[in-house]
């Protein structure tokens, strides 16, 4: 599904751009968003839509400053380790080298799976020791992640996105302990960002712990478009202090999000088409006699 999601990201951005005209010819900022479902733009209803990265890109585009934008390396569910592993891919390295603005959302998927959310009773629970190990892992991976990005592109401006409190619907007495853990997560991200010479983007002040209007689904931790707008404006608070905020009216022009089920169906159809296209070539190659092949040459023929 991930491969097809990437294609839809591009379509989604173009669709939004078509209803938000540019003020000038785009030039300057090559923006790459790395990370998890927040970077990808996952909605509270298992869809992929316009997230904070799209809104940042569109704001830059509207001001005539955007040269390129990609969030094709952001995937729902990715942990810090998986985001780090992305940097082993040549395609990712190439995009990172070409970028001059990079945002990262990573860390929540290391911690949140350890938190049990009983949305019916409004109860949160977690085991402190596994949570502490997860947070230590975030610190180690985040440090390495920033170090490798810096090695690939020392000149890029890196913005490490913080996290908001994603359980506004639970009972008040169950919020403080989990808030504390998320606060530690944000503190770790901020410390590692500052240590690496990157920028930390605090998001939680715009959400608080009762943002039901921004995180509307009690069973899901993802924000709606209004929540993503708050994240995008949090970015600009750091990137361009004092600049006008992205207006709420922009949300009315966003295209409809794409359900996971539709993305999965599209991916399956694409894979079938690729298999059909590959069959004649595979048969032709298989029918060719291979004489005197040295070890490994057959693999070169078949690629």
TrEMBL record:
The keyword Iron-sulfur does not apply. The keyword Transcription does not apply. Residues 33-228 form the SGNH hydrolase-type esterase domain. Residues 261-289 are annotated as: Disordered. Keywords: Signal. Pfam families: Lipase_GDSL_2. Residues 1-26 form the signal peptide. This is GDSL-type esterase/lipase family protein.
